[in-house]
Amino acid sequence: MILQNTFFRKAKEIPGMSSVYQAWSAEGVKFHYVSNSPWQVYPALQEFLKDNSFPEGSIHLRMVSTQSLILGKPGKHKWDSITTILEDFPKRKFILIGDSGEIDPEIFARIYQRYPDQVVKIFIHDVTSKRAKHADRQAASRTDSFYDGIKKMIAGELTSSSSSSSNGGPKRVNTSSEKAMDAMLTPEVPDNQQQVMDPTVPLKTKLEQFEQRMQRVSAGMRYGVFTVFSTATQLLHDPEVAEELYMAKGNLE
For residue 79, which of 106, 57, 101, 100 has the smallest C-alpha distance? Predict the structure, then answer.
């Protein structure tokens, strides 16, 4: 899928994003384009930026090798590239822009933790909610989903067990030794898996999972630093960016 997206699909601009970049460029903002794409697509990427009137800037692409494809850590290229840029320009403030499709939010959160004074803003383009809502609608329309089946089965067993006990069935007295034996024989199940198996706990929708992911990533950041956006105009009207540009312009004067 990565190769297909990289080599066979034409790049698409977020509508209005080049206008945002042009407006920022007029205010003196410099640009560094960091992509996880391999360096072989440099000519195509350069052409895309030019054809869509994006401001000039440095381009940082990934060096691809067999070893990096097999052993490479997810997000390493972006982390290395962005942290190098921040360290090369320690007096500059930065706006980080990515999307929710991969791990940009997690990478940017780590960068913010290391360079909180240099990161003015983190913008994450929401490419997940629409797909999540569609997946949730599809799941809701299926009455025989895998997890629903598990929950019904477990709920039935619990009801049956409770019923036999209340109807005078055999009752087990749990001694300390029996409890210890039960504990040893019970496999350790992660909390999230226990919730999946628990018929009394509703499963989270994909949209809820995405929203919780964004909340988890932005936890501990300064108020207003982290924004999930759907349209480019949100970037132009962001108060934190506007204030930073105003202050930077005042310092130049």
Answer: 106
